[in-house]
Write a sequence for this structure.
């Protein structure tokens, strides 16, 4: 079962980084066969096959196979492919016929080329001029463009029936798959289809500023372990399948691969002029390319450049197994480009094939096909910015389709084997083991387990149990409603109990989706629970595992909090979100704590230990190119692609025993950018100020990390509660070399390790008023726990690490450069100047 779960996880990871391939009209006459090279007998992909004198036609697949169904049968079949002589083959007047056709290489060859001095291969002269004309052909230089799109994705589990070593039987997963319904893959071996989707949509792109919108008109999804068609329909559309080779890097499978016609073309690749030939009515240069170092993350393939305009006509690329991509044995991207009315080029056909690597020697593999086509292209007619919100939108009747609709919508004829694959998926997903594997994957990804038909989910499982010094054994039961309950209302709740403190804690909340366009929600929550200073859901962010871990072990500075929070959140424009909320909370410390009264009332005690606050919270968030999917009653963010995400928050608060309100201002900027062949850098910059006098639990407390694993948004050698400030600036920087260094070391480059470097800096200050607000003893004379403040030196930690160990683990060596000596205050934990920390996740 372990191999099966790893296989399905790897397959869905590939689908999450990419996904979709092929299909158009059912008729009377069926012509099928395989087109091969006369000299090599290898299949010729993307061959144009058409009936002479009609508009009916198709293209061969990656192995040269084709199927054409037509209502009107002509006298001959025309077969044309780039670099080969066009053939006309006589047709018989029969319902079904198979024609296997061989093609001869084109007779048009380059004239003799004489090279003088340092001219080198003539391909470099052509590429140099073609790259110089990038701005003329790059679709990013258009003010806008739009087109009608068709996309298809097919995913198969294969390689489960191949011969094993002597006396080695197939694994249990392979034996099970061998009993399931299957189809035949390109190599004639059985393959089990597990995912098939088709989308028809309208895609709109506006440049400067960049806006993308896809309106999905029709969609159908048949898949194993997936029940939410709306989310998958958005995720498998054309928006996620944009490959522009005129950019310096092509983003595929969450990797930035240098383009062979980008600015780094001569640094990364070597080129060879192979031929001149005809593509349509254009005479083109055929140029082969390959990376200078085969272990680099780069393409191998062929590019066809127009001899007159020097624009891109067609490109075929491949990334092999030795490149630094996990779970991928081979990746192929093939495109055909056409000129628009404005002169710029656009890809009108894109086909991607991903052959995944086998997780273990006895486990099966997986194959993913993606196909996309564009038609009815319109350029330089930008819409108003408001039009592009939301970035992905489902038509109200997107599920209402028929077999006749898809037959007409597909740009190519679907083969009998592809029809059968769609039927087989329905059978496979009902197999008990496959259903169980799907449920395990869903549980691992979202942490909730559906409870039968109750429309309730149990979880998150990470928070179900904890053991710490305050609560002893902590048991927690949580529930939430799902979309079966309501597409507008979401209710959550939990109850927790500690055996040591013998106290019940609880939380309850609800959220209502007011509008989906623009996205508007209102919510209300109330909770009573044990917390610890320095760690909260607000500053820990999305790290749910870290929050769960913080409930274990010795909890220093624990406090009980009762909090009520109401809010409204609305998207005001593309990537521009506003939130305003009202929060009331209490602070009941379970440790030695006190502060001097801020009240002018002589009746109030001079020293106090508990307080209440009421805050008005206003947050504005700007993420102009963030990809958001709307899943019924929730939104899922896939992060920003090229621009930073900026968040500003203002808190206006009333302190229970102070006559003056207080203010908090914070700013956060997060961004990821490509540094050419050197890799990718991710950074975040923060700043904040509190121009008010408050007890130190209400001031800024940087997020520390005392665990054995690394946390992205934490200072990993800072203790949980170590520093306090009322003003600060911070910076976190991580650079991933993505195999740039290890790929050049023969002994270890096969391991596909990736090197990283990190640096984190935090500097803060504390006003005299806030510094003196905490007394040394409480009203009973007990020593009050203190805190550490910053001197003129910032906190600095740096690290270096290795990622992708066994395709899963990351190890970081981290040095704390400042404040390396422990505080003299015995209530503050000793510091750790150096540590090795580990983290793990599946990545490509």
């Amino acid at each position: 079962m372990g191999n099966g779960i790893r296989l399905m996880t790897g397959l869905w990871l590939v689908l999450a980084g990419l996904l979709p391939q092929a299909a158009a009209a059912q008729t009377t006459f069926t012509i099928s066969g395989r087109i091969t090279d006369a000299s090599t007998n290898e299949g010729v992909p993307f061959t144009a096959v058409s009936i002479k004198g009609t508009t009916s036609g198709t293209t061969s697949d990656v192995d040269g196979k084709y199927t054409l169904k037509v209502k009107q049968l002509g006298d001959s079949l025309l077969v044309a492919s780039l670099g080969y002589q066009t053939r006309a083959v006589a047709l018989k007047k029969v319902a079904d016929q198979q024609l296997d056709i061989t093609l001869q290489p084109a007779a048009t060859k380059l004239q003799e080329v004489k090279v003088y001095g340092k001219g080198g291969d003539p391909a470099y002269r052509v590429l140099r001029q073609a790259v110089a004309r990038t701005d003329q052909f790059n679709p990013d230089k258009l003010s806008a463009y739009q087109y009608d799109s068709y996309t298809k994705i097919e995913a198969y589990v294969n390689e489960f029936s191949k011969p094993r070593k002597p006396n080695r039987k197939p694994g249990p997963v392979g034996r099970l798959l061998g009993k399931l319904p299957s189809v035949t893959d390109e190599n004639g071996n059985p393959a089990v289809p597990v995912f098939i989707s088709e989308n028809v949509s309208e895609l709109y792109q506006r440049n400067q500023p960049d806006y993308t919108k896809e309106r999905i008109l029709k969609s159908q999804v048949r898949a194993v372990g997936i029940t939410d068609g709306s989310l998958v329909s958005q995720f498998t559309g054309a928006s996620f399948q944009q490959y522009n080779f005129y950019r310096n890097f092509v983003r595929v499978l969450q990797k930035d691969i240098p383009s062979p016609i980008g600015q780094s073309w001569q640094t990364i690749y070597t080129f060879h002029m192979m031929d001149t030939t005809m593509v349509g009515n254009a005479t083109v240069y055929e140029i082969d390319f390959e990376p200078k170092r085969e272990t680099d993350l780069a393409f191998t393939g062929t590019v066809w450049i127009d001899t007159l305009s020097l624009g891109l006509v067609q490109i075929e690329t491949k990334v092999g197994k030795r490149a630094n991509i996990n779970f991928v044995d081979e990746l192929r991207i093939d495109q055909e480009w056409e000129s628009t009315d404005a002169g710029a080029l656009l890809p009108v056909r894109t086909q991607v094939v991903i052959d995944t690597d086998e997780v273990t020697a006895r486990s099966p593999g997986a194959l993913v096909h993606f196909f996309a086509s564009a038609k009815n292209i319109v350029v330089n007619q930008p819409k108003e910015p408001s039009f592009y919100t939301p970035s992905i939108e489902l038509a109200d009747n997107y599920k209402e389709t028929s077999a006749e609709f898809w037959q007409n919508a597909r740009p190519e004829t679907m083969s009998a084997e592809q029809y059968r694959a769609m039927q087989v998926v329905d059978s496979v997903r009902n197999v008990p083991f496959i259903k169980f594997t799907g449920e395990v994957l869903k549980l691992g990804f979202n942490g909730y387990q559906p409870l039968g038909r109750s429309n309730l989910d149990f979880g998150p499982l990470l928070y179900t149990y904890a053991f710490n010094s305050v609560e002893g054994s902590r048991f927690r039961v949580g529930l939430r409603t799902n979309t079966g309950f309501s597409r507008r209302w979401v209710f959550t709740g939990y109850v927790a109990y500690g055996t040591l403190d013998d106290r019940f804690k609880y939380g309850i909340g609800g959220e209502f989706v007011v509008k989906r366009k623009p996205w508007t929600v209102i919510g209300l929550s109330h909770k009573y629970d044990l917390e610890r200073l320095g760690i909260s859901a607000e500053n820990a962010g999305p790290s749910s595992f870290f929050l769960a871990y913080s409930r274990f072990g010795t909890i220093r500075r624990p406090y009980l909090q009762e909090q009520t929070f109401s809010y409204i959140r609305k998207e005001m424009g593309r990537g521009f979100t506003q939130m305003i909320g009202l929060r009331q909370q209490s602070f009941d410390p379970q440790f030695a704590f006190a502060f001097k009264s801020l009240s002018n009332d002589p009746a109030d005690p001079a020293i106090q230990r508990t307080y209440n606050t009421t805050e008005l919270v206003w947050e504005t968030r700007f993420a102009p190119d963030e990809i958001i999917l709307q899943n019924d009653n929730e939104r899922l963010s896939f992060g920003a692609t090229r621009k930073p995400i900026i968040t500003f928050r203002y808190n206006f608060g009333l302190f229970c025993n102070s006559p003056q309100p207080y203010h908090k201002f914070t700013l956060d900027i997060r961004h990821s950018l490509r540094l050419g062949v050197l890799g990718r850098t991710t950074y975040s910059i923060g700043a904040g100020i509190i121009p008010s006098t408050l007890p130190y639990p209400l001031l800024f407390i940087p997020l520390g990390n005392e665990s054995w694993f690394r946390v992205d948004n934490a200072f990993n050698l800072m203790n949980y509660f170590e520093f306090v400030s009322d003003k600060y600036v911070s910076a976190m920087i991580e650079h991933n070399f993505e195999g740039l260094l290890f790929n050049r070391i023969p002994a270890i480059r096969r391991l596909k390790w990736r090197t990283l470097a990190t640096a984190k800096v935090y500097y803060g200050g504390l006003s005299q008023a806030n510094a003196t607000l905490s007394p040394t003893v409480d009203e009973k004379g007990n020593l009050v726990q203190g805190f550490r403040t910053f001197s003129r030196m910032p906190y600095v930690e740096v690290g270096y690490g290795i990622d992708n160990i066994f395709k899963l683990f990351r190890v970081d060596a981290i040095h704390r450069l400042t404040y390396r000596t422990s505080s003299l205050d015995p209530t503050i934990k000793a510091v750790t100047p150096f540590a090795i920390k580990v983290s793990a996740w599946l990545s490509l």
Summary: The first strand starts at residue 29 and ends at 37. The two ends are 22 Å apart (CA to CA).
